[in-house]
Amino acid sequence: MTDKDRSIEYILDHGLVKPKTAREQARDILRTFGFKFIFWDMAFSLIFAAITIVVVLAVFVAVPENYRYSATVAVAPLLYLLVSVFTETEERASGLYELKQTCRYTTRQITAFRTACYSVAGAGYTAVVAWMGARGALEFMTMYPLGLLALFTCAVPQLTLTRYARHRWANALYAAVWVFVNLALPLRLGENWEKTLAGIPAAVSLGIAVAGAAISAYQIKKMLTEVQAYARA
Amino acid sequence: MLALNNVTKNYGKFTALENINLEFSGGVYALLAPNGAGKTTLIKMLTTLIFPTKGEILWNGDEIVKLDASYRDSIGYLPQDFGYYKNHSPREFLLYMSAMKCMDRAAAKRRTEELIEVVGLSDVRDKKMRKFSGGMIQRVGIAQAMLNDPKILILDEPTAGLDPKERVRFRNLISSLSKDRIVILSTHIVSDIETIAGSVIMFKDHKLLTNDAPTAICGTLAGKVYETDDISAITAPYLALTEHQDGGRTITRFASERDCSNVAVSAAPNLEDVFLYVYRDEAV
Lengths: 233, 284
Description:
The structure holds two protein chains of two kinds.
Chain A: H1 3-14, H2 22-38, H3 43-60, H4 68-75, H5 78-93, H6 97-101, H7 107-133, H8 137-164, H9 170-189, H10 191-198, H11 202-225, H12 229-232
Chain B: E1 2-11, E2 14-24, E3 27-32, H1 39-46, E4 54-59, E5 62-63, H2 64-67, H3 69-72, E6 75-78, H4 90-100, H5 105-118, H6 134-146, E7 152-156, H7 164-177, E8 182-187, E9 199-204, E10 207-212, H8 214-219, E11 225-228, E12 239-246, E13 249-255, E14 265-266, H9 271-278
Parallel strand pairs in B: 3-8, 3-9, 6-7, 7-8
Antiparallel strand pairs in B: 1-2, 1-4, 4-5, 9-10, 11-13, 11-14, 12-13
Helix pairs in contact in B: 4-5, 5-6
């Protein structure tokens, strides 16, 4: 029997069931669990991430004038990165990951919902960072797209890793690499790095950020809808 | 009915299970094999955590992959390394797991209270699990697996790390929960299943070796198991199984293909004998 025949047989047996869209899945997850159970036992990760962010912002405001762009690029993705990495690592290390993967809404689907929330929060936080780093509204218009570019450049590999890598420390390792690269680049290239970033036109930054956001949204959508992919990995 | 048809699972070039055909219709099924024989791989396939490389797994005639969430609604699962939230009480944890299983809130509360009673954790229902013993944690584990009143209850090494008293308690609990459902229990501890399993499934060299009632499996060694206090007197080739002390004498239990009734006492084989005999070449 071919796949097509099987599909026809299945439809004849069960009727034509329209698969849920990512938006419907997300809505149903929120309706079923509420924020309380979606973020259950994530308090330590969220508090730890919040404390780190406060410390980072305190350092950020003291960054020398000629490193503002480098600092913005380094700091903008941190909220998203830290929160998603801490919560995902905690989730995977808890020992309940596989158990929850056997429930109606799987851990990956809930992770995808959380990640969507972190992305929105990350975009808001990036605006705050850009506002703090910019000297005036005009520069904000350049710095915010640059911050978004950094945010989604960081998010795309992280999401891909979350989607495909099953190792519990995969996300933590990625965060370490990201932070290392963002410290190493300004230290190694100095003002050249700053000039390169400052020279990127806002439209280019925005274009790349939008593309990154689209890829991130696609990854989140896939995690919300393709339940079986985890088992095939 | 749950059926595996020609199921093979490969991890790269390594074949964990090869061409497995099994049917589960009701009662307790024990997967008995040494560590690394493929028990956990089979359990992960039955819980949709991994998919077979070849073959299909059917639940009431439909592939579990296609049934997706509706199949997952039918199963209760206790993993080998059961993680739990240390800072929560059994009641909180069970309510959380009920939400994960999409249970109605009122039904979840009712079921949680009911299961806390069943597993004997009423006195500690609101205590944090941080200080719970291994046995208590496993009881929370079995309670969470039973929350949705599953048609298929899958337990991966549920008695590992439990003391003998807890193991007996756990066995009785599983036995009482096995009515009207399929219970699939993976273990390498023979005493766990001797009394409660209706069928014992054994794997050897990553293939299905046997799937039969414990008495029938023991019957395969009938007339081949002996006991003696002077093993040196046995000249026929034999496999030493176990030893025990009796009135200051060391009694050796052994299996031999040849008749040794003239120098040793014939003994009724048990599952442990079969296990040691079948897996004699493997590290157990």
